[in-house]
Design a protein that fits this description.
The structure is a single chain. This protein is an all-alpha fold and 222 residues long. The chain has one domain. It has helices at 3-9, 12-25, 27-30, 38-46, 51-61, 70-80, 85-90, 97-113, 121-142, 155-159, 168-187, 192-218. α2 packs parallel to α12 (192-218). The longest helix is centred in the C-terminal third of the chain and has 27 residues, at 192-218. The protein is globular. Residues 61-100 are annotated as: Disordered. Residues 62-99 have a biased composition (Low complexity).
Length: 222
């Protein structure tokens, strides 16, 4: 089943976990503590309100965009959209390293800012979908194998099931997104622990990528 189909069929908890996992994997870009989003995961497990956890996370990371509104969700989706020429261009080899990093950070922050305060399925479905696209775009921006690949974005095709042309970091992120949705669909709340493990693994991978890029940028003559 494609990622698009998994998102379309997911329930409220699965959608919330999917979007949260995307955000959790991208925390290294925001400088957030690894435990910052744990209260949100806990709220998915016990069914409690995640609004206070959202506000605490936003406050810990400093001012951002307006949270929880439809406009913010649409903004996050447009920022992550595979049709964004500006974003796609920033992934190319001619883009300054700082602009690539800034774009990745912007996409990650918008995932948090656009998270709906209420976890109703109608609210979290567009957010989860936007987070999926934004996280894949972040991984493409930072994937060394994607640098200089002319016009090879492929995120829409990958989400629809055609993963042949995706660079390695993006393909791995796509698999993690599918794994989280499958775990929640198959095990409900009991799948949250394994979904969190999948997210933690992805966060470590992204942190390593960010660190390598920072070291490369600091080397003389790079």
């Amino acid at each position: 089943m494609s990622l698009v189909e998994l998102i379309a069929q997911a329930d409220e908890r699965g959608l919330a976990a999917s979007g949260l996992a995307c955000l959790d994997r991208c925390l290294p870009l925001l400088g957030g503590d690894d435990e910052l989003l744990r209260p949100l995961w806990a709220s998915l497990a016990d069914g409690s309100d995640w609004g206070p956890g959202l506000e605490k996370a936003r406050a810990a990371l400093g001012p951002g965009e307006a949270a929880g509104s439809t406009e913010s969700a649409e903004s996050a989706e447009s920022a992550g959209s595979a049709g964004s020429t500006e974003s796609a261009g920033s992934a190319g080899s001619t883009a300054p390293e700082a602009s690539v990093g800034d774009e990745a950070v912007r996409l990650a922050r918008r995932m948090l800012d656009a998270a709906p305060a209420e976890r109703a399925a109608d609210a979290v479905r567009p957010w989860a979908d936007a987070c999926s696209v934004a996280s894949l775009r972040i991984h493409r921006l930072l994937d060394p194998a994607a640098d200089g690949t002319p016009g090879a974005d492929g995120l829409d095709a990958g989400r629809a099931g055609d993963t042949a042309d995706l660079p390695p970091l993006v393909a791995a992120e796509l698999r993690r997104q599918a794994a989280v949705l499958e775990l929640l669909a198959g095990h409900g709340a009991n799948g949250l622990r394994r979904a969190l493990d999948v997210s933690v693994e992805g966060r470590r991978v992204l942190r390593a990528v960010v660190s390598r890029r920072a070291r490369s940028a600091a080397e003389p003559g790079v």
